[in-house]
């Protein structure tokens, strides 16, 4: 589904280019539940942003479903981002002034749905993720784990090709982290949702079916 070929990226600091991704090759297949691990500063978030069409300043080739992404315009990339990838963040990133239902329906409204069409779909998904009674609440009225469930609902509401999650359990206690990882696992196993996540936490990795390690801009896959 995703194929990265010899991806290189550098940042400029004090008139010097610092390489951050060094010839990264990676294939992600439909239904993968992939963890990216590695020390702070090794390039994990940089790689994730590139996979999620946030960044187009890199060298090498990126194929999505055999289509080359590398030379797309900003406009085309933001379309891809809206339609084909769902994002989940450490700090949930829900809009504080909108209810949970409104947060989750936003990607559908961007996609041209009307309110009447979205309600049933949003309510069903909230129910499935165990927060069916929270649709009318504001994010701050929910626990961290419940907010992350809402963020996962927002990420998958328009059936993206894959989910990208940057330290999705980083702000949660151990029990809640396990609950959230079970949500991801269920989505992966029962609905075939492809998930790519960055984590520092070895316990989180146990839920995944592949793990790759970043070290100083290079990627290694460990057999499991
Ligand atoms: N916008 C930027 N401009 C310049 N340097 C950057 C920029 N973003 C990241 N870097 C540098 O690139 C390197 C990799 O950063 P990145 O955030 O990808 O690492 P990471 O593995 O995700 O780290 P962490 O686990 O701490 O989040 C770091 O040395 C960082 O300082």
From TrEMBL:
One Pfam family hit: ABC_tran
Example of a GO biological process term: amino acid transport
SMART domains recorded: AAA
Top-level lineage group: Bacteria
GO terms for MF: ATP binding; ATP hydrolysis activity; transmembrane transporter activity
Every ABC transporter domain range: 2-224
Record family assignment: Belongs to the ABC transporter superfamily.
Name of the protein this chain belongs to: Putative ABC transport system ATP-binding protein
Organism of derivation: Desemzia incerta
Lineage: Bacteria, Bacillati, Bacillota, Bacilli, Lactobacillales
């Amino acid at each position: 589904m995703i194929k990265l070929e010899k991806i290189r990226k550098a940042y400029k600091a004090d008139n010097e280019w610092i390489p951050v991704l060094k010839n990264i090759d990676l294939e992600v297949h439909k239904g993968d539940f992939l963890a990216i691990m590695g020390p702070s500063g090794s390039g994990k978030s940089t790689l994730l942003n590139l996979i999620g069409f946030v960044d187009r300043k890199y060298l090498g080739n990126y194929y999505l479903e055999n289509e080359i992404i590398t030379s797309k315009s900003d406009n085309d990339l933001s379309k891809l981002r809206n339609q084909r990838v769902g994002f989940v963040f450490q700090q949930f990133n829900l809009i504080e002034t909108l209810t949970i239902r409104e947060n989750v329906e936003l990607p559908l409204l961007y996609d041209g749905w009307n309110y009447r069409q979205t309600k049933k779909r949003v309510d069903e998904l909230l129910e499935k993720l165990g927060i069916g009674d929270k649709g009318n609440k504001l994010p701050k009225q929910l626990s961290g784990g419940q907010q992350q469930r809402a963020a996962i609902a927002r990420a998958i509401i328009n059936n993206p090709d894959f989910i990208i999650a940057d330290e999705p359990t980083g702000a949660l206690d151990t029990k809640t982290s396990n609950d959230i990882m079970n949500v991801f696992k269920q989505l992966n196993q029962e609905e075939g949702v492809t998930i790519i996540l960055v984590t520092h936490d070895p316990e989180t990795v146990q839920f995944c079916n592949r793990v790759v390690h970043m070290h100083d801009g290079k990627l290694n896959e460990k057999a499991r």
